[in-house]
Amino acid sequence: MTALLEHQLVFVTGKGGVGKSTVAAAIGWLGAASGRRTLIVEADGKGDVGAFFGRTGIGFEPVEVSPGLSVMEMDTEASLEEYLRIFVKVPMLSKMPGLARIFDFVSTAAPGVKEILVVGKLCYEAKENHFDLIVVDPPASGHVISQLGVTSDVGDLIQLGMIRNQTSWMLEILADQDRSTAVLVATPDETAVEESVELASRIRSETPVNLGGAVVNRVIHNPLGELEQAEWKRICEAASGRRGITPVVEAVDLYVGIAERHAGNVSTLQSAMDELPVATVAELLGSEANLDLIREVAEALEVELW
Amino acid sequence: MVRDVWEPLSRYSRLLVVGSGGVGKTTMAASLAVDATISFRLRVLVVTVDPAKRLASSLGVGPLANTPVEIKLPAALEPKGNLFAASVDMKRAWDSLIEKHSPDAGTAARILASPIYHNLSSKFIGSYDYAAVEVLASLTAEQSYDLVIVDTPPSRNALDFLDAPRRLREFFSSNLLALLTLPRRTRVFSLATRPFYMVAEAIMGGAFLSDLTDFFTDFSRLRDGLVAQSIRFSDLLTQEETGFIVVSGPYGPSVVEAERLLAALARRGIQEAAWFVNRSWPARLFSEEAESASRWLGSEGLELVLQGADGELDRSIARRTVAEVLGIRDQIEMAHSRETLSRIEPSVPIFEIPIAGEELVDAEALARLVATARRFYPG
């Protein structure tokens, strides 16, 4: 299997709120650290990745946020403009003042066109080789499936026209296992794991992209091994009656309980993922979204990444 | 005993739970519904617009349907009221909107059969959100429930839900719809619209463009009904009986998002009912006494344990254990730090919902969650 960072296109997928942007930024960070010209594409319109690096208002043009690492914001209207310029080869059209309105029309009404513009831009960047590694931070899970699946779906609706003709080269890039891969991000809660297993099977059945593995984010690890747990029990007995010891014991019990639950859910995901690698990133309690967080997550991932 | 949370919440007959993804909206909606049923002699309905499975599994029941089913709470919880649950199927909600507002059966049939409709009903103009409001409206109209709690759909922006009725009206009054239906009305393309069709045709092909025009010609026939209804929906959201609960985590981006949401609700004249800070570490774990006990554990306590230890191996295990336990304590303290929360100046009561040591997959666990919620006063 091709190592994750060896791919040209890495799609970070998962449901909302699991930390996709954080994981995407960390993978991008590792890519740049290994000397690859790396681009993180934000497609969820929130600007979270840029914000990690203290940058706001990043647009369609890639901005280098740290050495070797660029970030761009997906913008379907700008993508359409670029598309018309490159493929339709009618410069007049892309300069047209009504383009925004046309874009409204195209993206609102035509099935898959918006998705094609997103995927098309990504594949175009991959084809042009401006970057060694392109990490995509997409919007919530359902959209990823429709975006990645669109190359085959769109054919059913649109029989003729540019879009139809454009999908085959994109499909070639997306379906190439050495070139494109999807990473599933999950949290270690029971419902989140259930949903991730479902999403994994949808990625496999509804998109051409190969699922490479999963990252379980915000895992609370139990620092107490068997010996320490037995010892802690003895210490608790010895300290019982001590003023204020009850909430201390309760806090540890709560933490350890959550850790054990997480471990169980991670192994559930692991077995549902068949042979695929599952990396875990520890919960960094209380941490705010900034570059320190990205560095810490990147460090954790570096060891576990396939 | 009636829980603290109901003090600000009991005046509402509709509660909508909003917040960014992954903060636990579904769990909050379910546990509030369970607790309301335990505490009051009311008919309580909880509706989820999320994939059905999640609410169902957190209530410990099988798959839910569009029509509410009664959930029997365990007798041990001594419920005073009755609990009902439903899950909204977006596609079906939209289908019924189309059927309801089509001027004739033929129009409805054509729209429902169109592949364009299938695409639109799942992606179009925040249609998930719109369908959710539709279901809320129809369930409220039935008047068979005293309290309806709605778990709002996962969307990129929680405000999409609030703006869905307005956006639908905007669509019907925009030039866009006029453009989309133009070729059916006139074969004469003006200079202004010609480039539009050139681009559209180049990209999508002429055949598709004509399908699209047919579809929107049919769809525009629903205008009057849909617009009238969407105005009622907007009213429903701003009524006094409708309150919004904003959910966030204890730190990080969801807190910022919650503040933004509250401000946006206020701007729209919507009742902000409460802010739930989910997955908080219970404040009682951080009392003065607990702090001093944990300091004791690291010094005298450890000495005591070491004295009673049998040999060097035992002593090293004891040292390691105490060090790890204090490490856990540090971790939790960081999570409990009030840096973000203390800065905010909320317009609503804040409740901390404690992080659960168990999977929240049955009514008892859900009831415990609200029972242990505590009011938090920032500053």
Task: Explain briefly what this protein structure is.
Chain A is built from 12 helices and 8 strands. Chain A is an alpha/beta fold and 306 residues long.
Describe the structure.
The complex is a heterodimer of chains A (306) and B (379). Chain A has helices spanning 20-33, 48-52, 76-88, 91-94, 99-109, 113-128, 141-157, 162-175, 190-206, 226-239, 245-272, 291-304; strands at residues 9-13, 38-42, 63-66, 69-73, 133-137, 180-186, 211-219, 278-282. By secondary structure, chain A is α/β, with parallel strands linked by helices. Chain A contains twelve helices and eight strands. Chain A starts with 8 loop residues before the first strand and ends with a helix. The mean pLDDT of chain A is 84. Chain A is 55% helix and 15% strand. A nine-stranded mixed sheet of chain B has the order 3-4-2-5-1-6-7-8-9, sandwiched between helices. In chain B, strand 6 (242-248), helix 13 and strand 7 form a beta-alpha-beta unit. In chain B, helix 4 (90-101) packs across helix 7, helix 9 packs across helix 11 (206-219) and helix 10 (194-204) crosses helix 11 (206-219).
